[in-house]
């Protein structure tokens, strides 16, 4: 993974575990996968060997002596477990800065540490359900699709942060078709799969049981899958979600498109809780994130597991390299 600029890692909420897992990632990766953190040097755990840099290009060499940090001043100290309202705008500014550096070519990818959406909404005027939607807005309104990826499984929820009762109304043929197409393109461009295989889950139990348990599968999900297969896409479904995620079933597809948040996230968090990575497909830049939250309850205690952050940085660099080489096209 040499020859590309380093990965830009955002600090996330400095009162969460972002500073700790960034430090853990540097200890595990060193200069093998070059990255730098954008944040306030004062927010890292006491005794952190910091290598403050002025420019992202300095990160690979700086990593030999410490965690490379591109300074971004915040008004207040970090208080582990206690979010500081005054720091909320800075969290948003850091995300913007990481995207700008990546789009300018100074960084190869964005890897975001966890944020508190409520803190940002309450104290920074953050009007987005999460990172994915904000990044899509920064990309000029691109349709972004959230994938959760691990060695065992890749899943894509067609609807994300909405109440379960709102899913049937939000899930339209146009939305599902777009999600499937973006997923297929992402598997080619970002994962280097020339002929990706996609499994599509049903909305209802047993994929509707022939209409007995729901009509969406017969009325439009099934016909949509048939139309995509007629185009030459390797799309299987709609499939009963309760039989899609055992090992034998997973071997038959490269990604599963699911109908709602928990249908997708429960299986991957069961199989790879500490190793799952959030990947945003459909953006003009690479973005990954650990598949967990701020963990305010354990912040500052030195017990946060950096495994998902390590996996997220590795995957960001790998996807950037795949894109640079032309992907699987």
From TrEMBL:
Residues bound to substrate: 131-132, 269, 278, 287
Cofactor detail note: Binds 1 divalent metal cation per subunit. Can use ions such as Zn(2+), Mg(2+) or Co(2+).
Positions with a binding annotation for a divalent metal cation: 161, 206, 261
GO molecular function, one term: NAD binding
GO terms under cellular component: cytoplasm
NADP found in the keyword field: yes
Keywords: Cobalt, Cytoplasm, Magnesium, Metal-binding, NAD, NADP, Oxidoreductase, Pyridoxine biosynthesis, Zinc
Cofactor: Zn(2+); Mg(2+); Co(2+)
Compartments reported by the entry: Cytoplasm
Pfam families: PdxA
GO term, biological process aspect, one: pyridoxal phosphate biosynthetic process
Anything else known: The active site is located at the dimer interface.
Subunit structure: Homodimer.
Family assignment from sequence similarity: Belongs to the PdxA family.
Name under which the protein is recorded: 4-hydroxythreonine-4-phosphate dehydrogenase
């Amino acid at each position: 993974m040499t020859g590309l600029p380093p990965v830009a890692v955002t600090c996330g909420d400095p009162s969460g575990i972002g500073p700790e897992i960034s430090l853990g990632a540097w200890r595990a990766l060193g200069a093998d996968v070059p990255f730098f953190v954008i944040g306030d040097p004062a927010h890292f755990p006491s005794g952190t060997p910091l290598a403050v840099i002025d420019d992202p290009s300095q990160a690979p060499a700086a990593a030999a002596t410490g965690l490379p940090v591109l300074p971004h001043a915040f008004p207040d100290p970090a208080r582990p477990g206690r979010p500081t309202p005054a720091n909320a705008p800075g969290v948003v500014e850091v995300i913007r800065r990481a995207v700008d550096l990546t789009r300018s070519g100074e960084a190869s990818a964005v890897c975001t540490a966890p944020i508190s959406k409520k803190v940002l909404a309450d104290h920074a005027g953050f009007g987005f359900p999460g990172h994915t939607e904000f990044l899509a807005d920064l990309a000029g309104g691109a349709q972004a699709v959230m994938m959760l990826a691990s060695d065992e499984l890749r899943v894509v929820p067609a609807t994300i942060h909405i109440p379960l009762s709102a899913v049937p109304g939000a899930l339209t043929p146009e939305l599902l078709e777009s999600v499937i197409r973006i997923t297929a393109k992402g598997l080619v461009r970002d994962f280097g799969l020339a002929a990706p295989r996609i499994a599509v889950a049903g909305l209802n139990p047993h994929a509707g049981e022939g209409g007995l348990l729901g009509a969406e599968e017969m009325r439009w999900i099934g016909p949509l899958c048939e139309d995509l297969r007629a185009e030459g896409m390797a799309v299987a479904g709609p499939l009963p979600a309760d039989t899609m995620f055992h090992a034998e079933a997973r071997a038959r597809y490269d990604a599963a498109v699911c109908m709602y948040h928990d249908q997708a996230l429960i299986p991957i968090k069961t199989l790879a809780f500490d190793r799952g990575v959030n990947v945003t497909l459909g953006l003009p830049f690479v973005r990954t994130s650990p598949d967990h939250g701020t963990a305010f309850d354990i912040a500052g205690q030195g017990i946060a597991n950096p495994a998902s952050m390590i996996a997220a940085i590795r995957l960001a660099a790998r996807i950037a390299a795949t894109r640079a080489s032309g992907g699987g096209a």
